[in-house]
Design goal:
38% of the residues lie in helices and 18% in strands. It is of the alpha+beta class. α10 crosses α11. Monomer.
Amino acid sequence: MDAFYASVEQHDNPELKGKPIAVGGSIDRGVVAAASYEARTYGVKSAMPSSIAARRCPQLIFVKPRFERYKEISQQIREVFFEYTDLVEPLSLDEAYLDVTQTKIGLPSATIIAKEIKDKIKSRTGLTASAGISYCKFLAKTASDVKKPDGLFVILPEEAEGYLKKMPIHQFHGIGKATAEKMKVAGIFTGNDLRKKSLEDLTRRYGKAGAYYYNICRGIDDREVKQNRERKSVSAERTFDRNIIRMPEITQELERIIQITFERYKKFGLPGKTVTVKIKYGDFQQITRSDTLNQPIEEMHQLQNAILSLVDQKIIREEGIRLLGVGISNFQRKDRSLEPTQLTLNF
């Protein structure tokens, strides 16, 4: 979806259409969760501190997020996907991979399917989406970013090599800003430069990710579209209106966040053993502390005790704390190999 949260707000409130808006944060606190395209022309983007966003765009309008509304629209969009294929792998509320090798409606072209899906999303939600079409996940993702907003772009198998050779290294999905800068220092500016590096060299420089880099610059990505992506953690966090520095206040805020996290955890339904506290300071430096328990968490007091045991006077800094977060992970899933399997037969 194109600037999803911001687009939903502009659709629901016509007074915001055509104006630079930021979802989340405020003029002097917090972080931008999403920015409209009008705001992006000023350099405002997601994950940017609100204070910087406000300086870059003085007329920026901050809007409180409405996640239940975003989830509602996201469900409508997924219902469109399932009209064409059951092989849908959601990445977030506003993005998904679809495998349309075999579809429910028998259309002969992935491009035609993508066009139909875009039209249905626009008709049912009033929002625009961008689609990327190719033979693997990496190239489909790459193609989806080419003509945003409201874009549709195809990378054919015979075009992939030439396209990737010319592509700037910072545009490769999976190569972050820091890694891209390291690559440029090593003389890697384009996909063609990356292709010249051996697998051994890339593995030595970038560890396990080296094999991924070696393959994607050649258009090789064998990952399947998985219908059910397993959730790795349940969490909650809060950005404060002012930095906090006293331990009683830190503890009080943590207890509120712990309660929200535990409520989400119980709804999730799987037992978890690892707890994490996240701390972001006034200068935007961030630390985390984690502990893995002997037994999965069952009661809120267990989560409370585990989190508070990770927090002591050493976390207090002169610049104060602007954000606290609590998370539960390391879920104990059932051994699916012991469950009966329903076999299918193609007729």
